Amino acid sequence: MTNLQNLIISPQADLRAAIAAIDRGARQVALVVDEADRLVAVITDGNIRRGLLRGLSLDAPVSEVMNRTPTTVRIEDGVEAARRLMRERQLHHVPLIDAESRIVDLLWIDDITRAARRTTPVLLMAGGLGMRLRPLTESIPKPMLQIGGRPILEQIIENLADQGFTRFVLSINYLGDIIRDHFRDGSRFGVQIDYVEENERMGTAGSLSLLPQYPKEPMIVMNGDLLTSVRFDALLLFHHETDAVATLCARHYDMQVPYGVIDSDGTRLLGIVEKPVHRHFVNAGVYVLSPEVFDELEPGMPLDMPDLLARLTDRGDTVSVFPLREYWLDIGRIEDLERARQDYHRES
């Protein structure tokens, strides 16, 4: 049975408490329970991320995002009814309640089935020149720079492997033989690794067209020079819940104006805002692409990911935005590499 105490929060809790419960329970859901242990609502990881996209702060009450009418199963109906319900409605979790709506357990798809979501293929883009990291990248590709004694790309693969992903494709170009010689077929890391090689610069999405076979299920695509602690199963669940053909991970980026910004009406001063901070969502370099996305590819033709996503939105497809709240660091500059190394030693 699930340790319910890790998942339970009160109706008076804020989003910060809900996130803590979701992270503790590792079920992408928190249960809102009243003083009599009756189930009031559920909050999924996706509910919270959609709230953050709406501009909610972590101090906002859970009532802003919680689902007050969750699908549940009565204890007398049993696990078989839950299994059937999950399959019919493509649900990943169902609360088990008694006749008084008191929470008894949380049934989780991975606990009662052998659903193989980890067959999801992962494409890691590892062919960049790393110009901003020169001279470090003059003789070694950027994804092979070391943090804590191991290449960045090795840490990415091991993180995904720890989460159950085993099928990888590495897109290589600049000094690609170094990457291929290090990882080979992936067997020493407990995974399967294949390669596509760009003979010319293909853009950030062009190497997708080089795949010998297009995937038959959603594929994770990720830059091979970034570190993140995101749960990729939560990303895939969000992709499914939003009925998207593509999902783009986004990260908050703050820009501070170093001066007092003037608000005026013609020549009349209305006010001065001193050094305001503007917050934006920026591309985090992690994507989920469903099989139909590959219809937009032209074999061998260069293509950047923003252009591919624009094609999808132009044809009316849903492209979802998944806001990252977890650790994320793009290692594009020498100062980023040094920060990653400092973060590693702090966590060690």
TrEMBL record:
Q: Domain named CBS: which ranges?
A: 1-58, 66-122
Keywords (A to Z) from UniProt: CBS domain
Q: Does the keyword Chaperone apply?
A: no
Domain of life of the organism encoding this protein: Bacteria
Question: What InterPro entries does the entry give?
Answer: CBS_dom (IPR000644), CBS_dom_sf (IPR046342), Mannose-1P_guanyltransferase (IPR050486), NTP_transferase_dom (IPR005835), Nucleotide-diphossugar_trans (IPR029044)
For this entry, the protein name equals Nucleotidyltransferase family protein
- Organism in which the protein naturally occurs: Flavimaribacter sediminis
Q: What is the lineage of its organism?
A: Bacteria, Pseudomonadati, Pseudomonadota, Alphaproteobacteria, Hyphomicrobiales
